[in-house]
Amino acid sequence: MQPELQRAIDDCYSAFASYPQPRCLDASPLRDPVAILGTLTSAPLRELTGEQIGPYAGWAMTTVGDIADYKHFLPRILEQAVRESLWVGTDPPIIASRLIRGGWLEWPDGERKAIRALFAGAFSQAIEEHPDQRGDADNWTCGIAILDLDLPAMLDTWLSTRSMNATLQLATFLMSTCLFEADPLERAYWSHVDLPAINLVKRWLLTDRVFQRLSSARGWTAPCDEWLIDKALAAQARRRQQVLQ
Fold first, then answer.
1. pTM of this prediction?
2. pLDDT below 70 — which residues of the chain?
3. Contact, 41 vs 72, CB < 8 A?
């Protein structure tokens, strides 16, 4: 993990340290709040596993608990999102949607600053990892778009990161993203993003800068990764043609 991202995680724990562990949880009749709380308090916050905190993260503020409860567990949820996001509630777009639901823009400055730094750091790490290792650059980008965290600057960061992994992540994003689906219901997590932000990312993906970045990788990628570049360039050409029609 990048040192800057580890510091961002630690800062989140500090920013939300004033929110105590809940003594009880409000929940819908479909949930067992006593059992859920028992699981959530079975280990120190920083030691909760994905299996222990993941289900709650998916139910938080919808069918289990309130904002104060979520704030207590949020640092560990964010850390799980960075380290190993195996549960829906630890997917970056879902966390972003929970933050919107909780009115995060009205939270104290320190809390908002910690969240912004965490999303920026996680995005920077995600684009530096090989897609076979972690393929969640799309999800962090989507989370950033949901929260309106200076999306253009993040996209510029992507193109200015010159590593081959960043190029392969870009190829994977272009090849597999649901952004171009006409039906909003088919856009998966991107259905939570405002249309102007969606259009911004779509236009960016079809720019000459992205084409040049992908084209320049030909002949430099590992043989096992060449297909990603070719598929991405074909996808861009196809989508460019669709726009012209």
1. 0.93
2. 244-245
3. no
